[in-house]
Structure formats: C-alpha cells, structure tokens
Amino acid sequence: MCFGLANQGYAEDGYDLWLRYRPLESVAKARYEPQIAGIVAPGDSPTIRAAVDELQRGYRGMFGGDLTQQGAELRDGAVLVVRAGSPLVQGLDLPFAKLGGEGYLLRSATVQGKRVTIIAGNRDIGALYGVFRFLKLLQAGQPIDKLDIADAPKLQVRVLNHWDNLDRHVERGYAGQSIWDWQKLPRFKDPRYTDYARANASIGINGTVLTNVNANADILRPDYLQKVKALADAFRPYGIKVYLTARFSAPIELGGLATADPLDPAVRAWWKAKIDEIYAVIPDFGGLLVKANSEGQPGPADYHRTHAEGANMLADALAPHRGILMWRAFVYAAENAEDRHKQAYTEFQPLDGRFRDNVLVQVKNGAIDFQPREPFHPLFGAMPRTPLMMEFQITKEYLGFATHLAYLGTMWEEVLEADTFRPARGTTVAKVIETPVDAGAATGMAGVANIGSDRNWSGSQFDQANWYAFGRFAWDPDAKAEAIARDWARMTWGGDPVVTDTVVRMMMGSREAVVDYMTPLGLTHQMATGHHYGPGPWVADLKRPEWNPVYYAQARPDGIGFDRTARGSDALSQYAPQVARNWGSLATVPDELLLWFHHLPWDHRMKSGRTLWDELVVRYDAGVDQVRRMQADWAGLRGKVDETRWAEVRDFLAIQLDEAIWWRDASVAYFQSIAKRPLPEGHKPPAHDLDHYKAITTPYAPGQGK
Ligand code: BDP
Q1: pLDDT tens, 599-611?
Q2: Is 171 touching ligand 1 by the criterion CB < 6 Å?
Q3: Whether residue 419 lies in the annotated active site
Q4: Which of these, 18, 193, 390, 427, could form a disulfide with 491 (CB 3.0-4.6 Å)?
C-alpha cells in the first residue's frame, strides 16, 4: 500500500498532520519496547491490513525498524489486532456488547500465559480505530501497561462536506484547490486519497460528501460515477463511505424531463433509476446531500411542494439500498420580510414527523450562517420526531480564512452544551442530536471541510486542529474542547509540556479574540460582500435586505442591535420559554449575545459599568490585544518546534494582527460615525478616516462562490 512521500525528502511542512510519529525519546522508548514486541493480526481484510500498516508506520516512526508479525504462538509484548470472534480473545469476558459496529477496546491482558495488548472491535473498522487510539497514547507518552479502554461513537453519520466544484475550485476553500483530481480519475489514484482516508479514520470520520452543496448535476453522469467509484475504493478500507450532492433539477438537466416536480411519476422514476445506477457502481454508497430552495438552488418549492415531499422522494429511492438522505435546513426565502433568523424554523418546524426515517435534516449550528458566534439554532429540540444532524463549518469563511488562528473547538462545545430546555430528547443540543428519534433512526454531524491541495491540507498549521476537533466532536458531541486541543497539540507539535501548554492556551483564547475584533457583544455578519474577507459594516446596497451588514447591526443614532424580543421580530419565541426568558431579559442575557437579541441605546449601562459604546470599543481592542498575546506566546516557542512550521505560524499571526487592527479600526470608525461619541479614555482613534476603510476592495479574495 502506498502512503505518499510524507516523510521523505521534505522539511516538516504539516503534511503529516497529527499522525507525525516522530522518534520517541530514549526513556519512553525503553519503557514501551517490552510492551510492543510484535503484531498478531489474524484477519486479512483490507481494513485489518490498513490497521497493521498504520501500526507499522507508527512503530517505524517512533521506534525505528519494523515490528515483527507473529503467528498464533503468542509472545510477551504482542499487540493483538482482532475481531470479537477471534479464538485469541475467547473467555476473556471483554465488553464487546457495548461497542456497536464501530467501537473498539484496548485491553492489557494475559493470553496463553503471555502479557499482551488487545486491540479489538466487533468489526474490522473498530480494530482500525483502536489502532489509532493506541498510537495516540504512544505519541502522548501515556502508559500502556494497564489498558482498559472501551469507546464507541455516539453518532452514526460523521461526515465531511466538501464544497468542491468539478473544476477543482473550492467554495469557501482557503487551502488551494480541491484534492479530487477529477480529470485524472479514475485511472490515477493520487496517494493523497489514502492519506486523506487515514487522517479521517484516525478521528472516526466515516463519510465524505465529495461535492459542493451548490450542486452540479454532472457529478451524476456515468463517467463521473466511475471517478467517484475510484475514490470510494480508496476510502473503503478506512471505513469511509462516499456521498454526493444532488441537484434537485437533475432530471431536467441530465434526464431531459420537462419538470423536477417530486410528485411527478416520471421524475420519481428518473431518480430511482439514477440511484439504482449509483449503487450498481458503488454498492456501499452512503447517500445524497441536498441544498434546495436556498440561495438560488432549485427545489420542491418551485413546484409548490414542501421540503418533506422533496426529501422523501429521494429518501424512498435510497431506502432499498440503505442510503441516507441529508436535507439542509439552511433556507431563507427570496421574497420574505421575516427576520432571517426565523425563516428556517418557520418553514421546517411544521414538517416535524413528516420526513422518512432515512432522512437527516441538516441544521447549521446557528440560525444565520456560521458566524463567529451565534446562539444555537432554534430548530434543535423543536422537531422531536425528525432526525436532525448538526452542520458545523470547519473552513473559516467568517473567521479570518486560513491566516487567522481561531480554534473552533470552543465554539462547537458552546453550541453542543447549550441547553434547549426542550425535554423530549434530553435537553442539551448534544443530546438532541445523539438521541435517535426512534429505534433505527439515523443520527449525525457534518463539517464543511477545510481541506485542499496545500501541502499542509488545511491552509494553515493551526487549521488542522479544526479538522481534528470536528472528528472528535462527531464521535462524541459531549467531548471537551480543551482536552481535544491538548491531544492535537501533543501530536502535532511534539511532547514538550511547555509547547503543549502554550499551544493550548493560544487555541483556547483564539476564537473569542476573533469574535471581539470582528463582531463583539452579539453583533453579526459585518463582513465585506461576497467573499466575506475583511470588514464591511457600512454595506447597505445589496439587493436583499438580509445580505447587508446594516441589516444585522441595526446601528442608528438611537442605538445598536437587532431587536428579536416580542417588541421586535420575536425570534425569541422560537426557543423554549426558559431560553426566551433568559435571553429576552437584560438582566440575564449574556453580554456575548446582547446585540443579537436587543436593540439598545449607545449609553445603555453594561454589567461592567461602562456604556454600551465604550464597551464595544473595549471589546474590539481586547480582540486585537489577544492576537498580540498569541504572538508573544508563539515567539517564546522558537527553537522548541521545527523552524519551518514555526515561521509559517509567526507570519500568519502577523497577518492576523494586521487584519484584526483593520477590523477594529474600520468598525470603530463606522460605528462612531453613527454613535457620535468620543472613544473611551486610553483607546486610540482609528488610523484612518471611515472613507479610507470603505474604499478598500479585495476582489480576488480566495474561496468565493461562483
Ligand atoms: C454560506 C456561504 C455559501 C454557501 C452557503 C450554504 O457563503 O457559499 O453556499 O453558506 O451553506 O455560508 O449553502
């Protein structure tokens, strides 16, 4: 099996991600060596082979040399990679029952009188996941002599969503081109596909949607399906299924039909035949993802049908193959004066219980659009009879692209921990998505990928952490951001505790810094038009009101903020009464969501004792200061991590500081032109006047939609 050239002939550049397997220090090596003296892996499936290859690869990197492969005659220190039924683990009373299809256990045991380590699952994929966990322990220098670990994913569908076009442009991609080289597929299978699969399997991701939600029907053509098959073949040993996006009007574009009406028999027959054709090529195809009637995409509403009618038509065609249909709830109507915050709920909530069992309604974490901070989406907890899956955005469309260091783990933890106060299925958002609506109903989480053709995959070293954290939260939505950051830091930057502590500290404060210098106190969507690069709080000339930053901030001489209380748009009424009360009252709403829900006078007295205007300025500056602290922290690591990656991070932090100041200055200049108040003492005026910031254009910013 080919694993690419990651370690040969290159300075360390981030290609290896968190699977670096660098040589262990001699003390650790000496301690571990007797406990890892060989591999016993009786199965010969592609997945077991992948597990053994990974173990060998890890061993080679950390210890040097190869592990011997042993036969059934065990020796002390053997590492057993086995399935539940293996005679080697009979009679040990291992907890296979609670592992499900994808879980694993790691257990130190005595078998045939020898001290061994068992890595096992009910299926081969569990054993592979177990190997990755084992390698993680070694990378982190943790003891492996008394292992008793059992772990299983809490969600079934753990997928990346690639917003990749067939011409390799990645919508909202900041890491180069798409890694899918459609033109060379299916003949040429880039070794990178295997490394992609390894990385995903190492964090438990088990599916990938290859194509953009703004879909192109051509991906469903027979020639493209052969290319998709080649990718599916590369990923299969790693437990990863492929999914595609379906353009709702494909029956017209590819099939030559006059309509795509989901209740039209010819349309239904077309989809059924197309889906049967896909499964004939790829028998374990995962299913389809659809963005319908949203931002210009076709959908069932074009024929006066509901989202449920559209989704169910495709779900029915997928069901005989056990395929999943992911249907996005990211909709806001073309002609609708209703607060955009409310529109998805208005449209979807009445459809609760009307979707087939193999439909997952895919809901973004917040009601607007992947902003640096949003309250949780009111649909979570409000559709108890409908499987809802979470959609997070790993790529940082609204958080500074690849150059701003922003660890999203804290944002995702905040959303997943949030209490919906809807009792039907456990009250936190995590419990809502973890709990199947009935036996056999699907559960899942999707992450919009930040992966591209850059050597470091994600466009920056630190953005790899967001890919990593997504996998960990998809596996366990109750996981903790800090623990995940620590695991990633150790594996990615080496075992020096000073390095780990510094990296974790930087990560844990990083997202709040972005919130503060871009959109503090619950402001949102203040980004420049289209590409969303840099500030544009003054933008007011776009066709639809909710495309304009001024719509979100509602900054006027009388004050600032979007009134979503009963006096305003009443979006709060879409939440459970306890949530609505908490966020609706100025006494209890957290400062972080203040202007999301309230329009307040500039002189409103904040909990800090400052006026709202002063507090805003303080927050912008706090964001900039935090970037400076990250720079100082990073400067202290010079020489403690490899020079190439260190220098890249240093330079990116310098870009981030420039842009944080740009954000702060432009925003302060704009809001001051409305608030007409002096800056609080000790806070510097913007470097330029407002016109200067308004005149900045960046037409070639990367990642734009096409
Ligand atoms: C927005 C992006 C746009 C996506 C859209 C979506 O700006 O490129 O197509 O979300 O999620 O955040 O469909």
Answers
A1: 999 999 999 999 9
A2: yes
A3: no
A4: 18
